[in-house]
Amino acid sequence: MSCAHGWAAIAGAETVFTIEASAITFGRGAIAEVGALAGGLGAKRVAVFTDPRVAAQPIFAAARESLQDAGIDLAVYDAVKVEPTDASFMDAARFAADGRFDAYVSVGGGSVMDTCKAAILYATYPADFLTYVNKPVGGGTPVPGPLPPHIACPTTCGTGSELTGIAVCDVLALSAKTGIASRRLRPTLAVVDPDATRTLPATVVAASGFDVLCHAVESYTARPFSTRAHAASPSARPMSQGRNPWSDVGSAEALRLAGAHLVRAVRDATDDEARERLAWAATLAGVAFGNAGVHVPHAMAYAVAGLVRDFRMPGYPRDEPMVPHGVSVVVSAPAALRATASASPGRHLEAAALLGEDTRGATDADAGAVLARALERLMRAADVPVGLRGVGYGEGDVDALTAGTVVQARLLDNAPLPLDRERVAAIFRDAMIG
Ligand SMILES: [Fe+2]
Fold first, then answer.
1. How many angstroms is it from 74 CA to the middle of ligand 1?
2. pLDDT above 90 covers what percent of the chain?
3. pLDDT at 158 over 80
4. Of 42, 122, 302, 321, which is the most exposed, with the fewest CB atoms less than 10 Å away?
């Protein structure tokens, strides 16, 4: 195993890793198979989750028609909130509980799929909202048992939510962004139809595309699984177990695909090839980070999105300020990777090369700067804000941003090297200006 001098090798270190993923159906026209796939799972009465924008798209009509053609009784919940909250999760859960469904289909972006996961959980095992939410914000109670089948159909090429056991939301009373993480929340099936991305605005492709890229680069540079303590049982092994031989394969190919196709996919909605390649990169990166875990940029993103004041991104609902998830992650990623490169400079240089950066002659000492340069080049080309000032923050926000990040223990623990509060604050200061 390659070096990991950020984390000391420990006695009784992990020697085993586990790969779990949703079953995947991928390709143009795949959405037409949703009905048959649901029937194959024994579904007779299905709840279909979506949001108002997607509900008007051809991809949603195709999913609905496929389910009806398969003779499945269905009810639609189209009130999913972009950037969901504890309140919107629980509203969806009431719909799920009242409908007596035997299976669930979600058609939409990460917000839709995450809302569907939470609705299934709270409808199946009712509890106060914070019961299952990650510590320290919530109680971190394990999901008590199996959940009904969930077929997740992503309509953006980004979040990877169709492949992971994570549901993210804002807890309104605490002004905190957090989530629920359990392998039981992972959808049964992911149906990925790149045709769904044809109608996406350029800004949505950019935000979700950088989310893909960050899933890949963070999985590729996460601490190795072998630096953790040996799990006492398979169920005790964390989902974010660290990078491993399987996640390396998916992350590397996702980086290569994103480097070659992300900017093309943003600039030209008719570039079917680029959008399809990006959807495949999202799928690979989703499986990779679902089993390796992400780290510092995603930990910082919780605070960047949660403390937003007045930033609005074209192409997204404009009724309230919002930093889209992918932007909230990538905006500080160059600074974060500059800080983590010393733990595994070779990995950081490889990631830069996979993104298309010229790394000839670069030394270990250059690794962070070279990878940051690769990211910033792509961000500028895709017209995404570079640096936190671009989404409305300033030096005076560093303390609050740091406080919102250090509580993301699950993510920071997966970083290639330990980071205390001071180092997190230093990364935020570095991230102010791109
Ligand atoms: Fe993400």
1. 30
2. 86
3. no
4. 42
**Pairing status of strand 189-192 against strand 150-154:** parallel
Q: How far is the CA of 190 from the centre of ligand 1 (A)?
A: 17
Give ion ligand 1 contacts, CB < 5 A.
211
Per residue in 401-426, pLDDT tens? 999 999 888 899 999 999 999 999 99
Pairing assessment for the beta strands 176-181 and 166-171 based on DSSP bridges = antiparallel
Taking the centre of ligand 1 as the mean of its atom positions, its distance from the CA of residue 111, in whole angstroms, is: 11
What's the CA-to-centroid distance between 34 and ligand 1, angstroms?
Answer: 25
Strands 45-49 and 73-77: parallel
Tell me: cis bond preceding 136? Omega within 30 of 0 counts: yes
Q: How far away, in angstroms, is 425 Cα from ligand 1 center?
A: 21
